[in-house]
Amino acid sequence: MARQVFDVSPVLVMWVLLLNLCLFFPNKASSAQLRQNYYANTCPNVEKIVRGVVTQKFQQTFVTVPGTLRLFFHDCFVQGCDASVMIASTSSNTAEKDNPINLSLAGDGFDTVIKAKAAVDATSGCTNKVSCADILAMAARDVVALAGGPSFAVELGRLDGLSSTSSSVNGNLPLPTFDLDKLTSMFASHGLSQNDMIALSGAHSVGFSHCNQFANRIYSYSTKSQVDPSINKSYVGQLQSMCPKNVDPRIAINMDPNTPRTFDNMYYKNLQQGEGLFTSDQVLYTDTRSRPTVNLWASNPTSFNNAFAAAMINLGRVGVKTGSQGNIRRDCSVFNS
């Protein structure tokens, strides 16, 4: 039987190659649509509008800073930066925000995004043009700058996700007990480097935690010692006075005992003094593989600011939704009907 000969055009070959690239590098393909000034033609003043709302919220309460920043992180690490963490649970679905690990997310973060979305949609020409995911990314950038940290050009073009389940959170967020290997591995699974991880950990320069998240380090660390030996003894005394054994675990403690209302490089200086609140904080200094980076950023705030800005941009590229994978929600807390 005669062999059939097919004429394969160069254009077809090119499309096959592009398809293969998308299959093998999904994150790079999906983040390709992100760019600065994405809304230049549809809602040119969007960044100014969002910044105005964030500034007003910041003036009302400092909790806006850590609340919004942590919301962005928890969103991006679960199903990507798609505002799925904003979705409210229903009788038929328990959403991400109601997973136990997310119950401590400050309401001010959610409120900031909701108010910014309302302000954007109330602007002529901008209604239903800007995603909740992009508003969250802008707000996270803005709160850092308002608290004294670096500002940077944020990439935009994300769509809002179409799914939000409590089960999707499990195993996708770092825990306070993680060592360096677990931290590095988890961040790598989201396409982020160890340097990105150490830089993003610097967000603990602001914010707070609850006593039950670190009580094991100051009371029952091991059978041989009541206190984690990597903690500064004076710091242990401070923590025990604020968090006695039978204290309400919901009491909030500043992550940074020295400059808790300023986004700066004090976090790394604290680690040098044994004042990291979580195991996952202090290990960045006790582990000799990450210690040089901690020492560098403790002595060079400009270097830290640059690294943090770069890490935030990389974080904002995680799991970006495009095309039929998402849409622009009319209400950030509810899927479009």
From TrEMBL:
Free-text remark on how the cofactor is bound: Binds 1 heme b (iron(II)-protoporphyrin IX) group per subunit. Binds 2 calcium ions per subunit.
Cleaved signal peptide residues: 1-31
Broadest EC class assigned to this enzyme: oxidoreductase
Site (Transition state stabilizer): 70
Stored CDD domains: secretory_peroxidase
Active site: 74 (proton acceptor)
UniProt keyword Signal present: yes
Residues reported to bind Ca(2+) 2: 256, 259, 264
GO biological-process terms attached to the record: hydrogen peroxide catabolic process; response to oxidative stress
Residues the record lists as binding heme b: 204
Disulfide feature: 43-126, 76-81, 132-332, 211-243
Positions with a binding annotation for Ca(2+) 1: 75, 78, 80, 82, 84, 96
Domain named Plant heme peroxidase family profile: residues: 33-336
GO cellular component term of the entry, any: extracellular region
EC number assigned by the record: 1.11.1.7
One Gene Ontology term of the molecular function aspect: heme binding
Localisation: Secreted
Domain of life: Eukaryota
Annotated SUPFAM superfamilies: Heme-dependent peroxidases
Keywords: Calcium, Disulfide bond, Heme, Hydrogen peroxide, Iron, Metal-binding, Oxidoreductase, Peroxidase, Secreted, Signal
Pfam families, sorted: peroxidase (PF00141)
Catalytic activity as recorded in UniProt: 2 a phenolic donor + H2O2 = 2 a phenolic radical donor + 2 H2O
Binding site for substrate: 174
Coarse class of the protein's main subcellular location: secreted
Family recorded in the similarity comment: Belongs to the peroxidase family. Classical plant (class III) peroxidase subfamily. Belongs to the peroxidase family. Ascorbate peroxidase subfamily.
Name of protein: Peroxidase
